[in-house]
Design brief:
The structure is a homodimer.
Chain A: E1 3-8, H1 16-31, E2 35-40, H2 46-57, H3 63-87, E3 92-95, H4 97-100, E4 102-104, E5 113-116, H5 119-126, E6 130-134, E7 137-139, E8 145-147, H6 152-164, E9 168-173, E10 194-196, H7 197-205, H8 213-222, E11 226-230, E12 238-241, E13 254-270, H9 275-285, E14 290-299, E15 302-309, H10 314-328, E16 332-345, H11 355-365, E17 372-376, E18 379-385, H12 389-399
Parallel strand pairs in A: 1-2, 1-9, 2-6, 3-6, 9-11, 10-12
Antiparallel strand pairs in A: 4-5, 7-8, 11-12, 13-15, 13-16, 14-15, 16-18, 17-18
Helix pairs in contact in A: 1-3, 2-3, 6-8, 7-8, 9-10, 11-12
Family (chains A, B): Belongs to the aspartokinase family.
Keywords (chains A, B): Amino-acid biosynthesis, ATP-binding, Diaminopimelate biosynthesis, Kinase, Lysine biosynthesis, Nucleotide-binding, Transferase
GO biological process, one term (chains A, B): diaminopimelate biosynthetic process
Chain lengths: ~400, ~400
Amino acid sequence: MALIVQKYGGTSVNGPERVKNVARRVVNTRRAGNEVVVIVSAPGDMTDDLIAMAHEISPNPPAREMDMLLATGEQTSIALLAMAIYELGEPVISLTGPQVGILTDNVHTKARILEVSCDRLRRELAEGKIVIVAGFQGMTCDNEITTLGRGGSDTTAVAVAAALKADVCQIYTDVDGVYTADPRVVPAARKLPVISYDEMLELASLGAQVLQPRSVEFGKLNHVVLEVRSSFNDNEGTLVKEVTELEKKMVVSGVAGDRNVARIALHDVPDRPGIAKALFVALARESINVDMIVQSAMRDGINDIAFTVGRDDLRKAVEVTERVRAEIGASKVTYNDRVAKVSIVGAGMITNPGVAADMFACLAEEGINIHMISTSEIKVSCIIDEEYLTRAMQALHSRFGLDKE
Amino acid sequence: MALIVQKYGGTSVNGPERVKNVARRVVNTRRAGNEVVVIVSAPGDMTDDLIAMAHEISPNPPAREMDMLLATGEQTSIALLAMAIYELGEPVISLTGPQVGILTDNVHTKARILEVSCDRLRRELAEGKIVIVAGFQGMTCDNEITTLGRGGSDTTAVAVAAALKADVCQIYTDVDGVYTADPRVVPAARKLPVISYDEMLELASLGAQVLQPRSVEFGKLNHVVLEVRSSFNDNEGTLVKEVTELEKKMVVSGVAGDRNVARIALHDVPDRPGIAKALFVALARESINVDMIVQSAMRDGINDIAFTVGRDDLRKAVEVTERVRAEIGASKVTYNDRVAKVSIVGAGMITNPGVAADMFACLAEEGINIHMISTSEIKVSCIIDEEYLTRAMQALHSRFGLDKE
């Protein structure tokens, strides 16, 4: 008998038919002889609707009361799912985050889980019940209701799985696993049976919107085996776990593309200490997330600094950069929002030199110019013109042996 | 400085403008130098919407999960009201029933309050905050969420007022007080400045839908002064409290009418012990609420039994009565759903004999036939043909000196 934690997102429980569908899956897992704990998100757009209601009352509502309001979303889901499972004849109980004892810090609207108490969960499981837990929410030691911020239900699922030492934490989404590339862009993409936490982290932050990076990190830290599955079919999913050296058969596991990229360059920057700091502190103050940064020595004592931001932030970022340019006496600011980022990810890269060179060669053969490069131990990313993104992804996917037979 | 508990119903917090309106009233009460605790219901039809959602999943959902679901309604209200008060610049905090420590028994969907803990409430008040409490909900000693059933928010308000020894518990509704009769039926009706708990109880159960009988009983037991007010104007309301003998100036305080009445009669019942029991046990098993019961000896050894039920229950009640008729050998069952109940209520009746006779005389003078009579210490009710209800109410209102000058 395995102990399985399942997490269903908001689209999976949007409306009575979908709730019943999830109930059937949960009951099937139980009847196959497993203990089951289920984490659910708020139905569909409920969280967004609640936020809109709050903003009709106050442009800037207190975070504590926001959490009080938002926590009703998951409470609605757990009650309805428990009813649907009860209707199928299985013993079941729903529990809010506070009822489970999901202890968080007191940073309302983006609290962090400090501890998950197992007492209540184990007691209900011991009574033979399926246990439904509200995702996204917890309680401070002062009995205050908190929420975990975006992707919080994934984090709840992984934290509960870690606390219970579950055999697997299945994350149900609208895709049935992690692919070597987005199949809409690269038709030859294959589903990966296994991927390492680190690769998943890189893919997650590169725009493969399957798992929240925070929950993958949490899984890695707590050795929780994750499985990404679809709630709309019965296909085998993708396991996310620690992959041993021997298992690293593929040098590159996936190719990712991201069009939400704009590149800004500050030209002819005097080569003095503190210049980069001035620029990036100013950007951080405006809550602008900077992704890649490249500084290149062009001539003696003069640099160019180039960096990328999300396109939503472009205008504000250009304004800030222009202000800094005037202060430090750089020559000009240029920007380009017709660029994209293409990346290859693979844990095998560490032990296979020449992968980056291979990537550059592949892009060169396709006649694609590279504007910026950034590397980590298991990833190489290049900024290219957006128009070439699809061609680049397909070429790299083929080059690194990822196309399906 | 007074400690005032205010309760606002669902219509008062339906939509952002109404929430802001309630916030202004609460803040005004606070700024007038009072400590304020506010109890709110779920917005508008939210409770009914949630029940409908549950029934799309299960025809008969488990009561515990129903409570889990329904409790989200009031949690939504308290968060939004707290945001609106915060927006007006007053310190405020919202608390769920469990957070306050409203301890109930474990009869889900109609739990009874066992105890209200004052610790958290007093601590927040001492910090100068307006405290918003979710009505209708509580927690068992096992940490389970419960709801109190219909009118539960009124009960929460009275229980919180009793626990805090509040100076007054103001119940805000869509009428601005308790009237000597429904002003839509009796245009001469006057608002009562004061009414006793017992009179209010009789009026409440006679169809004057102002206060839930349970909350009035609770107020009486705990000596909580209630005040019924409108949330849409600033008129003085009606105080509900213990009225001393000296204050009982009026013999009759109010006239009530109820059209939701159907009369059933079982004819030629053999006069044996256990017949009435057989009938009313059978009706109770079908959860049919019986109001008035009259048994009359017609001839030697043969009785008629007549009783009234709500019109929704008529068909089922006739079926049950027909079944019992066959078992016990009575002659026939008749029924009439074109009847109504007219009642006079007044604490002064106890010490003023002849009030009932006065009532019958008044109805006779109007040419209105009486089908059934039922009396208590402070109430006389008559079943009459429905077509005469308005005339009866107006005549009685005038007869007992209730018309406004």
